[in-house]
Design brief:
Strand content: 25-35%
GO biological process, one term: purine ribonucleoside salvage
EC number: 2.4.2.22
Subcellular location: Cytoplasm
Order of helices and strands: HEEHHEHEEEEHEHEE
Domain Phosphoribosyltransferase: 39-160
Bound molecules: guanosine-5'-monophosphate
Distance between the termini: 11 Å
Strand order of the largest sheet: 4-3-7-8-9-10
Shape: globular
Helix content: 25-40%
Number of strands: 10
Structural class: alpha/beta
Family: Belongs to the purine/pyrimidine phosphoribosyltransferase family. Xpt subfamily.
Number of helices: 6
Radius of gyration: 16 Å
């Protein structure tokens, strides 16, 4: 997605640990006009697929998924929660994740009532690095016996192993921008 690549080049900052900071349009401040284009592009990538629900993970996935859902006939969005709370139902699907940016392990949980057997699910997230977050959502999808139509990612760091992990699980991965490498402080796309 050319406009996304241009935005990354203009506004993205490379941080230690191969982290790309895109706080000005994706992870802190959200550029809604631009994210509408992201939503439309996900619709193009998964056009013709029957999608009943979008599944994502808090926090940054939520806004992207909510905007994208509008292009899939306003399907509901379900997001995995990262912290336990009294509000969360006792009946949950859960899977472990090792956080790429925080380096900590946590569990992602989804209330069982929000994923129904046989539903067609699109998984959406902001970044794909080692594939841990998306893999956890796929594990939850498996527990819920839903069909995963694909995984849609805004920015994939192609030099990390995430795509391989997901494709080995038999899932279609569509990334709107794939970073080949960070080279001498610059961002190189596939
Ligand atoms: P993975 O689980 O694939 O290793 O990492 C994906 C998750 O870690 C995403 O949900 C995202 O929140 C975070 N993440 C991974 N790499 C980056 C990065 O370079 N920049 C930002 N902002 N988040 C990242």
């Amino acid at each position: 997605m050319q406009v996304l690549k241009e935005k990354i080049l203009k506004e993205g900052k490379i941080r230690d640990g191969n982290i790309l900071k895109v706080d000005c349009f994706l992870n802190h401040q959200m550029d809604i006009k631009f994210l509408n284009e992201v939503g439309k592009e996900f619709k193009n990538r998964f056009n013709g697929e029957k999608i009943d629900k979008i599944l994502t993970i808090e926090a940054s996935g939520i806004g992207i998924a909510a905007i994208t859902a509008q292009y899939f006939d306003y399907v509901n969005v379900v997001f995995g929660k990262k912290t336990e709370s009294l509000n969360l139902d006792k009946e949950v699907f859960e899977a472990p994740v090792i956080s790429y940016t925080k380096g900590k392990e946590y569990k992602v949980r989804v209330g069982k009532q929000f994923l129904n057997e046989g539903e067609n699910i699109l998984i959406i997230d902001d970044f794909l690095a080692n594939g841990c977050a998306a893999k956890a959502l796929l594990e939850i999808a498996k527990q819920a016996k839903v069909n995963v139509v694909g995984v849609g990612i805004v920015i994939e760091k192609g030099f990390q192993g995430g795509r391989k992990v997901l494709e080995e699980m038999g899932v279609k991965v569509e990334s709107l921008a794939i970073i080949k490498e960070f080279k001498e402080g610059t961002i190189v796309f596939n």
